Automatic annotation (TrEMBL):
Gene3D superfamilies: Translation factors, Translation initiation factor IF- 2, domain 3
InterPro entries: EFTU-type (IPR029459), TIF_IF2 (IPR015760), TIF_IF2_dom3 (IPR023115), TIF_IF2_dom3_sf (IPR036925), Transl_B-barrel_sf (IPR009000)
Residue span, Elongation factor Tu-type domain: 186-276
GO terms, molecular function: GTP binding; translation initiation factor activity
Record bears the keyword Protein biosynthesis: yes
Residue spans crossing the bilayer: none
Identification of the protein by name: Eukaryotic translation initiation factor 5b
Ranges where the Translation initiation factor IF- domain occurs: 60-164
Keywords, ordered alphabetically: GTP-binding, Initiation factor, Nucleotide-binding, Protein biosynthesis
GO cellular component term, pick one: mitochondrion
Superkingdom in the source lineage: Eukaryota
Amino acid sequence: MPPPLKELRVKTQYEKHKEVSTSQGVKILGKDLEKTLAGLPLLVAHREDEIPVLRDELERELKQTLSCIKLEEKGVYVQASTLGSLEALLEFLRTSKVPYAGINIGPVHKKDVMKASTMLEHDVQYAVILAFDVKVERESQEMADSLGVRIFSAEIIYHLFDSFTKYREDYKKAKQDEYKNIAVFPVKLRVLPQFIFNSRDPIVMGVTVEAGVLRQGTPLCVPTKGFVDIGIVTSIEMNHKSVDSAKKGQEICIKIEPIPGESPKMYGRHFEATDLMVSKITRASIDALKNWFRDDMQKTDWQLIMELKKTFEII
């Protein structure tokens, strides 16, 4: 310790002590102390044969400390330099609602990449290692590249999180593009009989959105007429302007084109103005909405999904 009334930072002759009490600043002299972990005990071996015993004790201590942290079944793999920085990163992930399935302290080794790669079987977007202020070994990076595990490394927590956030957004957008033809948003439409502009191939008519949201590309059917498939909505107009979607209560003009490979349906023969048209949902379309379009769905949309599930008898 420094002499009385002196600071640790001031260059002066230090006083040596056998022990110190709490809340006192000290400097510890020793070799390889940079390898110690903040938050864990520092043990001293007086004889060579004590080293393996003390090493085992420290490993047990570390495993016990890490085992107290609750992990999720699906999530990212988190690597940090110290317990303190690990806790800081985990708290940041918790507040940002990012799940984590694995944690470790120290450099990223090949075994860490192997653990993170298990997410490739469950959810590819979580096959990620967030390396906070730690070294990524060359062999580990090569292994990660070959397996398809992404490693994000940074010394500042916000830079690390920004990189991961952009990756997730890009991944979600790619998945939305992939599933856009499978995901069917729930909607109920009421025909406006005074606005029938073309009754067959393509059907052009005015409708009112009774519930849900109508989007371009939505397949429509009529449950009251034996679930006959009317066709696919290829354009939506509101006040003579083309729009991508329409919400509950809006009156719009839509064009319905036949489903490829099926014979065109006709208004007045296959369905009437008294029949409600609904989006044709399936188990696959519901799963696509849950996984990739949840942010675009309102509570009322999910209620309509539940109603349509009973109509189509989807389990």
